[in-house]
Write a structure and sequence with these properties.
two-stranded antiparallel ribbon, alpha/beta, 248 residues, TIM Barrel, 36% helix
Length: 248
């Protein structure tokens, strides 16, 4: 199959690696029965690559449950509880922190886990994805007692060491320009960013997408990239379950 010329930087970066790169894919803001979620799941099934869906428990709808369960490649992570902003004046958006009552927050996280476990059974993994990739340090400390084994956020900032029983599983590449109108950055720019990350990756490399703001043309470009990565001998697509099992 002829590879699109925009993907040449990715192929060069992979050729220069001494060992395979481990890649995992997270998609955020799932829960509602959104046509683009169903388009995403069709793409996942066509490519036969694993995806970890970050699901907002309060948004979960029956049609979504059926579509996810019909996609063997999909696992489920917990995306906060209701994706509500509790930021204090002057702060950036945050659900898991800010002015939220900590006791109520803990109860909602437990409730959210119960909702997802009942809906998805073993497909639901004890991984918390904070909305907006933000979480207060005191909330981090409570996560093991709430049943979470892994915290998955954006690879930036410093939360300090994780408490005993909690690991980090970060994402590093986001093809949406949130500050520039929530637009798709394009395959050429995404390939350049991927190549830079491939060159320096030591642990699992995480791609994060957001289906509600992904247009049809962007899905097509994403499919081209993922198809090349799936077929490359120096790429190992990892399931979230596999990453948990190997302690990454």
């Amino acid at each position: 199959m002829r590879v699109r010329p925009e993907l040449a930087p990715v192929e060069r970066a992979l050729a220069e690696r001494d060992e395979p790169v481990r890649l995992w894919w997270r998609d955020d803001d799932a829960g509602r029965a959104h046509p683009r979620l169903f388009a995403l799941l069709r793409l996942v099934r066509a490519l036969e690559v694993p995806i970890a869906l970050s699901v907002v428990p309060a948004w979960l709808e029956p049609e979504t449950i059926g579509a996810v369960l019909a996609t063997p490649e999909a696992s489920v992570l917990q995306h906060g509880f209701a994706h509500e902003d509790h930021a204090r004046a002057g702060e950036r958006k945050i659900e898991l922190g800010g002015g939220a009552d900590r006791g109520l927050l803990a109860a909602r996280l437990r409730q959210g886990s119960a909702i997802l476990r009942a809906a998805f059974g073993p497909r639901f993994l004890p991984v918390l994805v904070p909305p907006w990739n933000r979480i207060a340090r005191d909330v981090v400390e409570e996560l093991p007692s709430l049943g979470f084994r892994v915290l998955s956020i954006w690879d930036e900032g410093d939360l300090g060491p994780m408490p005993p029983g909690l690991a980090r599983l970060d994402v590093h590449l986001d093809p949406i320009d949130w500050r520039g109108g929530r637009r798709w950055i394009g395959l050429e720019e995404l390939a350049r960013r991927f190549a830079r990350r491939i060159a320096t990756a030591r642990g699992p490399l995480g791609l994060v997408t957001h289906h509600p703001v992904t247009e049809d043309a962007a899905f097509a470009e994403l499919a081209a990239l993922l198809g090349v990565l799936r077929d490359h001998p120096r790429v190992r697509f990892m399931t979230a379950t596999g990453l948990l099992e190997d302690g990454s």
